[in-house]
# Entry
Amino acid sequence: MKTVAWKWTKMIVVALLVVTAVRLLWMSFLTTFDYAEKPVAVQGVLDLRGWEFSEYQTLRLDGEWEFFPSQFIEGNSLKKPEGQTYLQVPKRWDEAFVHEQGVPDSFHFGTYRLRILLDQEQEQTLGLRINELRTASTVYANGKLVSQVGQPATSNIEHQARNIPYTVKLTPEQGQVELLIHVSNDVGAGGITKPIRFGTIEAVQMRTILSISLQLLLLVVFLIHSLYALLLYFLGARNKGLLYFSLVMVCGILTVVTADDKLLFVWLQFDYDWTVKLTYLSYVGAVAFIPPLFHYLLPAYLNRRILQGFGGLCSLYAMFILFVPAGTILAMSRMLSIVMLLSVIISAYILWKAIREKEDIIFLLLACLFVGVNVIWTIAYAILGLEIVHYPFNLIFAVLAFAAYWFRRFFRATTETKHLAEKLQQEDKRKDEFLVNTSHELRNPLHGIINITQAIIEDTNTPLHEEHKKRLDILLHVSRRLTLMLDDLLDVTRLKENSIRLHEKKLNLQSIFAGVFDMARLMLDGKPIALKAEIDDSFPSVRGDENRLIQILFNLVHNSIKFTDEGTITIRATTANGFAYIQVEDTGVGIEEKALQIIFQPYEQAELNSIRASGGFGLGLHISKQLVELHGGTLSVQSTLGRGSAFTFTLPLAPDSVPIEESSAQTLMQTSLEMAAATTDQITTPTETVSSINRKAKIIVVDDDSINLNILSKMLESDQYEVSTATSAQQALSILERKPVDLVISDVMMPHVSGYELTRIIRKRFSVLELPVLLLTARNRSQDIVTGFQAGANDYVKKPVDAWELKARVKALTEFKISFDERLRMEGAWLQSQIEPHFLFNALNSIAALGLQDFTKMQALLEEFSNYLRLSFDFHNSEPVISLHDELDLVRSYLYIEKQRFGDRLQVEWDLDPDLDFYLPPLSIQPLVENAIKHGLMQRTSGGTVWIHIKDKEDYFEVSIQDDGEGITEEDLNQLFSQTGHGKKRASVGLRNMERRLKQLYNQGLTIDSSPEQGTIVTFRLPK
# Structure
């Protein structure tokens, strides 16, 4: 009980903090609708000269207003009024009538006046929002009648009361607005008792609409909950608690539409007496129906006579309200407070009695808390004189808490009924033989379903409706889950028949942990769960079957994910007495004490107080325990409900003196090499692949196991491949930084950074076309393969590796990569050879024009043009690199032609370090210069300058092309090399080709720095 009480206390404290934080945030948000400065009227004048009016901010017309008690003055009257005094607004006007004699205390009238000084050029339409003027008022602005509510009068007989909020439009005249408000009142406190809002008409209306919208939101929430409670009651539940809940919601609706903006009285014309009666009746009804509601929800905790007595009292008070005038109701308003207090006491008594026995009572407590907080804030606003736009959220939270109580009860009853039904059915369904035999029969049709569904989804000829596609995705997901369940059923059968044989070898746990976590991340489904591995780099190897060890760990981690909503799942390893102790610990919901005895039995699952159902057959933990015992270890569990679970299993350490299956590994290596040699003829010979490219394919093989690494490198050593080896992902990435590579072959299970993660890192820099990745995995289950492909792998090979299969897949991937590189180079040469007709036409026109003016210049231009054509069609453009001298020849010819065409509009500055001599990709500088002139300089009438910088740095050569043209916006710069970008300055085909070639040769592309009207700098670097 103490644990439950502490838990509830924490929930209540958290809920209180949340609703308070939301309220404060709301108040902070509303400050944006108020001006930072708060001017105050002084002796009837509010000086707003120099004031800048906003379209969404308003100010309060607070301060000293002139007041003329017991007289209605006119704005255009030539006679100076007398008897004025100054009253603070907002405030009751009682002090102004202290010295009045012979006037009944229940009726007063008078005139408020305020002069608002504005700028002479003020042209905006202004507005007022008057929230309450009791109980009749007329507003004059600059002597003109602009609004009237009720009929203010100098006598009680002529006075017609009506009290609703209203908005007034104002038009300044000669830099000022003179407000005259005639007010008369015959009931209760009179005068301007609530602030008057002033600002542009747009700002006033926006604030009003916001307030009304929030009231309508609360009204809709109340209405929806009232209707569903009535439906549940009349559809068969017949719980009177539902009926009273609906009545409370109806009365809540009435309180919403009769308070604040008094929407009901704006929509419908009511006599003033009835506005007061309806307002009080709505509150009486709400508080009167709450105790019966609690009584029928928790019927055993209140004597019915108390409930009947309270109901009788509320009925008498309601009759009193119906039959007496409004003045009497307001004078006796404390009776409403008494009824409210009694309702609170009775309801609190019921909850206090039930709190020790009903575990769902917390939702009712929270509902009462939210209502109470709302009442407290309302009282605080009244005492402090604060004004705030209608705030509905506390009451919405209260209604949702009530709804949560109903739904919790409903779902509890439903779950318990379902649980009992399932228990009865499970006794006839625990037939292992039948399920296993069926799994064999289901496997083929199930794979057919998966393949057909996948084909339908991917068929581009017959596009699917979005809703149908979603349903097929669900079918695919369910089918794959069923495949895993069938695998579990088959493993259970094989374990029972002792037909599973372990292929034990020396295993590195660091590698296994990293790979399992990469697969497990796909199962998180967006949960905020951190996966941590705590194991030393020097942790000794263990003896075991790699495939089965991965299965054990994956089952345990997957089980932790299912029962952890947020937190951490940790795998740690320690050693003792020749064994490795491996623990999978989570911070999930934990397991009940009684469930700890059965969770390792087949088809058993922890129920966890029906909080959740894990799905599946409940075989994962059973299979893991059996596999651990096959390895000569044990599997145990420790758990605390609400704090998480820890599964620990043991595996024997591998002997230090003789590596496990060292001899067999050597045999495997020799066999693999023989197979590789034997199958060489079956695969296309290396010369057939490289004859057209005249280079070896460069391959990186990554594996933390030196024996496997040696085997793989021996398999691939030939005239066709240049093989580099790495024992970690870091080493592989280092090799990628130093030289171009055609293929990466990586083991999946590696310490620190797994093969999956290495693939993801590679894909951040290279696409699947630019650098293929082939993964080696010990398992060929769907979750392993899907994890690899989602990481970005091109293909996979199952271990132990078959030499023929490996060489065939390597050959296909390297030929694909080399063909892609060749196509990229040929594309660059082809692009240059496709000289634009427009450029050719302009060049010929320039030659023709010079022939009539200056034959010498024409001859020089003709020579440069022919040189440009010769270099453009040169076959060397298809080579990977050419000399800087050849590239600059092409650039100079191009610039000479363009200079003759554009004259002084084009200026060229050269900045070259002396003695430059290096090689670079063909057509790497000229397209950048052409792009700078066409898209940077010549877009402007004045033209500009292009600078060509080539610098010899310590470790690299740097080439920069700079212009002072129109520049590129940040949005267009981000989409420059995008294949689907829609920016105005999308890169040309030549630039995109240059970007890809630089990345392919040097692992880095173009760097572009640009700002609108500031020009552009395009830079690339070539390592020495």
In short: The chain has six domains: 34-97+106-206, 209-407, 432-495, 504-652, 664-829, 834-1023.
